Amino acid sequence: MKGLVSKIDALLKLVIVVCLSLMAIFVFTNVVLRYVFNSGITWSEEVSRFLFVWLIFLGAILAFKDNEHLGVDSLVKKLPIAGKKVIYIVSNLILLITLVFLFDGSWKLTLLNTDLSAPATGMSYAYIYAFGMIMSGAMILIILFKLFRLIFKKDVSELIMSTGSEELVDSVERENSKKETGAKKK
Where are its TM segments located (predicted)? Predict the structure, then answer.
């Protein structure tokens, strides 16, 4: 399973690098052509905009997978492990519901815009809205996987959403030492 996740991760990073590289090439070339030759590539701005949207959606998937989105966890850090689990499950369920709505909205917008095409490239706007479905679908799978790990595998490594949180490690160690001490007393 980890091999598949790492391959998908590498593929997403490659697609993001390609999108960013093509954007830079198209925009730079168009600027040079406008200022030096007084002409430009008509479709370059439009394709760059499409690539930027795709890059943002794919980057959001990667950031979500690695818990790199902004969050405030000062209250959660002070809770015991049981409280952290409850907050984690509730917040992920809220995210899950929100992502289902996002998927549904993206689906409807994709269907509405299949006949609408961009003026310079003729590319359907459905390609933009389809990435909303891809992003929300991928994030739904990530949430379900994380909730499965928490509930069935008892993995508490991601209870605090910020990366590199040393407080979580300390609180898990304190909880484990309390359990060991209680077991030794009996």
Answer: 12-35, 47-65, 86-107, 127-148
